[in-house]
Design brief:
mainly alpha
Amino acid sequence: MDYLPVPIFFAIAFVFSMLGLGGSQLYIPILFWTGMDFKTEAIPLGLLLNLVSSSSASITYGRKGIVAWRVAGPFAAAIIVFAPLGTWLNMQLPIKPLLALFALFTASAAVLMLSGWRPQRGEMSFQGQVTLGLTAGGGLGLIAGLIGRGGGSFIVPLLYMAGLEARVAAATSAPIVTCSGLSSFVSHLATAARPRWGVWIACVASVLIGSQLGSHVMARRMKSRAVKKVFGWVLLGVASLIIIKDVVL
């Protein structure tokens, strides 16, 4: 059972790297279902795989020149700063209604992208890109802290609705997800993690190969229309998972 997730994670990394996502929302429950302890094994390894997938894809997209760095930099900085505030608010506010609201937003974003609707946009100024990164990153950092997630599934719809091409939005999401996930992984590694190195190395290798292949396919062959369709269906799945796992159960 220990090595059962390895080929599954290759497929997840292949698909999710195309969308600028890390994949922790699937890695962690799969590791738990295969028998790993949730706190000391599944979460730390899932966060590491999320980090490997998103950072690997970030390198590919950065080299291909399809990352909007003027948005990604401020976005990543703001999400790191505001996530602790969201974590503090987590103790003060009821979480299930918030999760239901975010699931609704995710499903709405999925329908939006699947419908083919495109926002009116022109060339965004430097000031506009920085402002977008800071404001959206701050808001999403707050959300990520509130619900205990990296927020990757919300980043691409936000960037798309702000006017970025779906393909550029997915590529720009990858370095943001990398930054938002790094601190979580480090904190878990330093406190609760109990690595089984053979399993960790096999899973990391599988995810690294899958994310490299997936990001190269997206960068070279996929158009924004295809990215929107794949991302839309994945978002519907994520929204359903939030409703079933975190709201209903």
